[in-house]
Specification:
The chain folds into three domains: about 5-65, no CATH class; about 70-175, no CATH class; about 195-260. The chain is mostly helical. The protein has ten helices and two strands; from the N terminus they run H-H-H-H-H-E-E-H-H-H-H-H. Helix content is about 70%, strand content about 5%.
């Protein structure tokens, strides 16, 4: 990515209207979208197209500032859309008579039978889930209508969809996993459960093993089964992000292999 061009676009957009050279802005836009017909129209009547030039440059700048190339957005689409589709397929959170505690790795849609015994902060996680689910569905349906739109148009909504889906899943996981009678913050030794070194070590090792074990399978599915590939890529992405967010590193060679297979490195 040309960082000098990014800086020039930013400077153009930050300038006062009277200081903007519309043709200069159109020239930068031409280098991004290769739309010579639009560029020629601007040259003929720059004042007529000033707002349009600024609007288009803002969209491209949003991607560049987030270090997202067009290819990156396409990869993001392959991860975010299947993840959201899986969330929607599970159905909206509904009141049910679930009596069993969820097993590790599952997402339970129903309100727990012991819901009223839960601390307020855990109940609040449930309360957030229904509006989050409908927001995910709304964004998903919107993006379906934008399949032929440029990546820069889809980028903003993909970001929103990714954020909502991750929050929904995190909420449901925390809600389902809470054990009545324990503190959500502390264990018997006064430390946070997630800070237990033994538990962290197990999760880190499991995440590393998952990445190593599934590289070949991901490569095979990429060219043979797009649906299964997208689901597996989503799971690989989750393991990678856990390792990074927990302060662990992943070998550069392995990251490079996974990036070639669709992993998004932020």
């Amino acid at each position: 990515m040309d960082e000098k061009l990014t800086a020039k676009i930013q400077a153009y957009l930050d300038a006062a209207p009277e200081d903007k050279n519309v043709i200069e802005g159109a020239t930068m836009l031409l280098s991004l979208n290769r739309n010579r017909i639009f560029f020629q129209n601007v040259v003929r009547k720059p004042e007529k197209f000033a707002d349009k030039v600024e609007y288009e440059l803002k969209k491209h700048l949003a991607i560049r500032l987030d270090r997202k190339t067009i290819a990156d957005v396409a990869t993001m689409n392959k991860v975010v859309i299947p993840a959201a589709q899986a969330t929607i397929a599970e159905g909206a959170p509904v009141i049910s008579t679930d009596n069993d505690l969820p097993t590790e790795g599952t997402v339970v849609r129903g309100k727990r039978a012991d819901h009223e015994l839960l601390p307020d902060e855990i109940k609040a996680l449930w309360d957030e889930c229904t509006p989050l689910w409908f927001k995910i569905k709304e964004l998903f349906e919107l993006l379906k209508t934008m399949e032929s739109s440029p990546a820069c148009d889809r980028f903003e909504y993909l970001q929103q969809l990714e954020e909502c889906d991750k929050k929904y899943r995190a909420n449901m996981q925390a809600y389902d996993a809470f054990v009545v009678g324990s503190s959500d913050a502390d264990t018997d030794n006064g430390k946070k459960a997630e800070d237990n070194p033994a538990d962290i070590a197990k999760k880190v090792n499991a995440a590393r093993k998952y990445l190593s074990d599934n590289k070949k399978k991901l490569a095979d599915l990429k060219n043979t089964d797009e649906k299964k590939y997208s689901v597996l890529l989503m799971k690989v992405q989750e393991r990678y992000e856990y390792l990074v967010s927990s302060g662990n590193t992943v070998e550069a060679d392995q990251v490079a292999e996974l990036v070639n297979l669709g992993l998004v490195v932020k």
